[in-house]
Structure formats: structure tokens, C-alpha cells
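Mods, move this if it's the wrong board.
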Amino acid sequence: MANTIYILFGIQPPVKVVGDYVLLPQLFPRLEEADLAGLSYSVSVEEIKNSVFAIGRLKTLGPDGFPTLFYQDYWGVCSDDIISFVQDCSHTATLPDHLNEPLIALVPKVERPMSMNQLRPISLCNTLYKVVSKILVARLRPCMTKLVSPSQVSFVPGRQITDNIIVAQEVLHKFKSAKGKKGFIAWKIDLSKAYDRMQWSLIREVLWEVGIKGSILELLMQ
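Not the wrong board. C-alpha cells:
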């Protein structure tokens, strides 16, 4: 809540600099040691295999041109190379330069798009990049309930973003039924393309503050 107030009213929150990181104290929860331990252990063979077989067989190809079904159908042949590659990425906290070079495709939202906001950009990623990403997501998922506020309805299994519609309807209904009373205000904030406005430096600082450090932070930033 404090973070929202700072942003909405343009107030500069108190900051603390630790090394190369700028911390925003008391604005983000901190993970417990048990949670952090679950993020930092070595990547297992089972994790890698589960990640490979969790991807749709005919997901849209990335620049490498290899669909997931190739790795799944020939797992017995290429498994050693895939396992060695993913474990090396985890150990060094780096990705090869070419791995994170997706193709950007523009999917029209309407029959005859006339402007860029009528096109939806999607990233066509390499399959091995998806494998590494899925492993990171699987490790972070159990921590999301501690990082995401109970009032937010996204990113946590069991919550639906459409719940916001019900909340908004209830609030406006309250406004209409409270006739003769003053002091109600509804404020609609445009959050379209919010991800495009995020800065990587802020994401890094937030992750560092909640306790995610070391190789997993570096790999996430990669």
C-alpha cells in the first residue's frame, strides 16, 4: 500500500543504498530462508526433463527452428546435451548470447489493423530458452503467495484477474446506493502495457530486496 501511495502522489520514498543496489525499505516482503534455499539448489535431471515435456509439442518456433517435439521424441539421443547445457547455464548464471534472441511477431487484434495498438506483439523464443525459463518459474511459483499482495488477483494459482470486475461493480454499486452522502471517489488508472514500462534495474532491485540474490538473480536477469 505504501508503494502505491508513493507512486500515485509522486512522493520520493526513503531509499537505502547497499553496494550496487538501491533498496526501498518496508515496501516489499522478504522471503524466509527456507524459501530462498529452495531457489538456489542445483538443477536436477528430473527438473530438466519435466520442463522439456511440459512445453507444447508444436509451440511456435523460435530462431533455432527446432520444435519441442524434436527434443521430446529424441530425448534418448539428445538428453545428455540438454542436461549438460541447462546445468551449465544454472552453474554459471549466464545464457549464450544467441539463446535469448526471439523473433517478434505482430498478431492483429482486429480484421484490418490501422495502428500499432491494434497489433499484439508476441515473442517466439528458442525451445532451450523456454526450458530454462520453465525451471525458474517452477521454483518461483511456491513463493508467489508471499510476494504478491492478497489484494492483487494475478500471478497466484486460484486467483482470477476477472475478480477485479466484481470488486469494481460492488464499489460502484455502493456509490450509487449511498445517496445524499459525500466523500466517495472512483479513480481509474490506465495500466495498459504496464510491462513495457518496467525498468530492468527496478526489477533487479526488488528481487534483491526480497532476498533473491546470487546466481539465481543473475540468471533471472539474463
